[in-house]
Amino acid sequence: MSDTPRKDVHPRTAAVHAGTRRSQYGEMAEAIFLTQGFVYDSAEQAEARFVEAGPDEFIYARYGNPTSRMFEERMAALEGAEDAFATASGMAAVNAALFSICAPGDHVVAARALFGSCLYVLELLAKFGVEVSYVDGTDLDQWRTAIRPDTKAVFYESMSNPTLEVIDMQAVSDLAHAAGAIVVVDNVFTTPVFSRAVALGADVVVYSATKHIDGGGRALAGVICGTRDYIRKVAEPYLKHTGGAISPFHSWVMLNGLTTMDLRVRAQADSALAIAAAMQGHPDLSQVIYPGLADHPQHDLAMAQMGSGGTMIALELRGGKQAAFNALNRLQLIRISNNLGDAKSIITHPATTTHQRLSEEERERLGITPGLLRLSIGLEGADDLIADLRQALGN
Ligand SMILES: *Cc1c(COP(=O)(O)O)cnc(C)c1O
Predict the structure, then answer these.
(1) Is 4 inside any structural domain?
(2) Does any ligand 1 atom lie closer than 6 A to the CB of residue 310?
(3) By Cβ atoms counted within 10 A, which residue in 2, 75, 296, 328 is the most buried?
(4) How far is the CA of 289 from the centre of ligand 1 (A)?
């Protein structure tokens, strides 16, 4: 039995109720169906299910599972998408979204400012004969020039990691759709709370659920949202045969994460704005990058698209790598790690960790300078985080 509220409910209602399935016991909390297989009543039933499984019929956990189905339906409801498929990690979702669409000879246009592993997947596509063109995602002229009549897909992070560039989603969608291309968006930094990706023309929306959806840095997971046709006819066959399936336990962790996500992410974004504003003008900082600040180059776009600056801040120290390392090592509350979207505030030095693999020229081009720090704001009191940053900067 599935328990999906009306389509027009508030996202917080959907995040608590959408997709809930109850067994014959009528359990209140979502059950973990920790089972790899499912029993058929007869040989005929097994045969019929392999021909076509109904929405509440399962075959094998790599194909789908009732707990994971709850997570998928809840995500689809939140995203305003027809359907979703959950995966073992965010990267399994990015990999499946792109590889399920592309074939040798296809052309893909991607924004250059991407998470390191997303760049790796694009390099892999190129290795298998897909032509990939890279553009500066904030420059619509570059998208216009790069997208061709034979472009199969465009791919970008709606807010880029770690320099928080904001892409004009509607404008890029319009250019892509005019060429008949599929728009694939990695929406992690925007979060499902501030996402209007489907309304702004995204065909496929991908999340690393490891981040804000879990919200506690506990489990890896990912999810792909899209039309029912795309999810069931394109993404699902790819995933069910290549093995990117999510664990039912992790789906259950994510279902729990979703129930509080809206409250958490809004509180984190409120703190991020307060912290970014407090850090502005600090003598040791050459840049405070936060889309919620009026001086961000895409501030108006961020507000129109997301209604928030999000939960991430980038700070650039004037003193370069040594100053950045000194500040990191002096922090007492904010922890050095490379996850994000956690309840605990986390700081990263991208040039030597998440983006170490890139050449120095490429890092320079992406604005990942030796003094840049990426900050993921958690649920602590904003004043404590500001105090920690101030003492770490030595002022
Ligand atoms: C973390 C992240 C991913 C990868 O997600 P995993 O769950 O770690 O596999 C992809 N894209 C972005 C923007 C991310 O931040």
Answers:
(1) no
(2) no
(3) 75
(4) 20
